[in-house]
Amino acid sequence: MAGATKKKAVVLSSGGIDSTTAMAIARAEGCEIYSLSFRYGQRDTFELKAAGRVAQALGAKDHLVLDIDLKKIGGCSLLDDTEVPKGRSEAEMQQGIPATYVPARNTIFLSYALAWAEVLGAEDIFIGVNAIDYSGYPDCRLEYIESFERTANLATKAGVEGRTRFRIRTPLIQMTKAEIIRKGLELNLDYGMTHSCYDPSPDGMACGQCDSCLLRKKGFREAGFPDPTRYI
After folding, report:
1. What are the tens digits of pLDDT across the range 126-163?
2. Are the C-beta atoms of 137 and 97 separated by less than 8 Å?
3. Alpha-carbon distance 210 to 196, whole Å?
4. For residue 95, what pLDDT is reported?
5. Residue 46 domain-assigned (yes or no)
6. φ, ψ for residue 210 (rounded to 5)?
7. In Å, how far from its chain's centre is CA 40?
8. Rounded CA gap, 133 and 173, in Å?
9. Amino acid 1: pLDDT
10. Sequence-separated (6 or more) residues with CB below 8 Å from residue 4
11. Which of the residues in the chain have pLDDT under 70?
12. Alpha carbon 209 to chain centroid distance?
């Protein structure tokens, strides 16, 4: 209907392939996008720059960047000077939880997204988690997402009063990286604006050997499209 109000959606954005594709899907559904990113003490700011480019390119109504100093908590190679795992095989990525796991990160990020969604009157929170081509993170699994959605509706004024039924949207959770990339290209995404590397060079070039780079390269290779990333 002409003039109809768009439904609002908060989209967690890291500036990478998955969150960018999730945002494109939300836009394709006709949502008004509220992009949410975090400066949480990570090694570099390239992902935040990418998230800003993505928000602008996909016409987000707002792009909010929140500061959380998780570096004070530590426990992750993305937050300190410990070595980022490099050159791991797919089998190795599926064994155990890697050093790049940020303790409780998705729970923290989703909690902030939930707070913003409640204020905005948004029912949908999009997160680009993926349970197939990933590095073994426990907060990327469907069981976790379902649990958080129940919590969201139990722990908010809007949920308890029945004004809002919050939904944690995970459109990519059962897709391979190649399927995600194909979906994004169908939605006319320019993946050249995204950033995936855990350990980029000072000028932002991707290392090509961390788990995230390897999964990205594998995804583009299997999707049959060239990867626009600048690798060292």
Report:
1. 999 998 776 678 899 999 999 999 999 999 999 999 98
2. yes
3. 10
4. 82
5. yes
6. -75, 165
7. 14
8. 9
9. 44
10. none
11. 1-4, 134-135
12. 20
Return the SS3 of 9.
Answer: strand
Chain-centre distance of CA 205, in angstroms?
20
DSSP designation for 180: H
pTM over 0.85: yes
Contact (CB, 8 A) for 124 and 97: no
Amino acid (one-letter) located at 200? P
Please report whether residue 228 resides in a domain: no
DSSP state of 108: H
pLDDT for the residue 39 = 97
Question: Residue 121: which CATH number?
Answer: 3.40.50.620
Residue 37, token pair as written in the block: 């990113």
pLDDT score of 4: 67
Task: Find, among 38, 34, 36, 39, the residue nearest to 62 by Cα.
Answer: 34
Q: Is residue 231 part of a domain?
A: no
Question: Can you give the pLDDT at residue 11?
Answer: 98
Q: Looking at the 3D structure of the chain, how many domains does it have?
A: 1
Tell me if residue 169 falls in helix, strand or coil.
strand
Structural domain that includes position 164 = 8-223
Q: Is 186 domain-assigned?
A: yes
Compute how many other C-beta atoms are within 10 angstroms of the C-beta atom of residue 98: 19
Q: Which two tokens stand for residue 101?
A: 């796991």
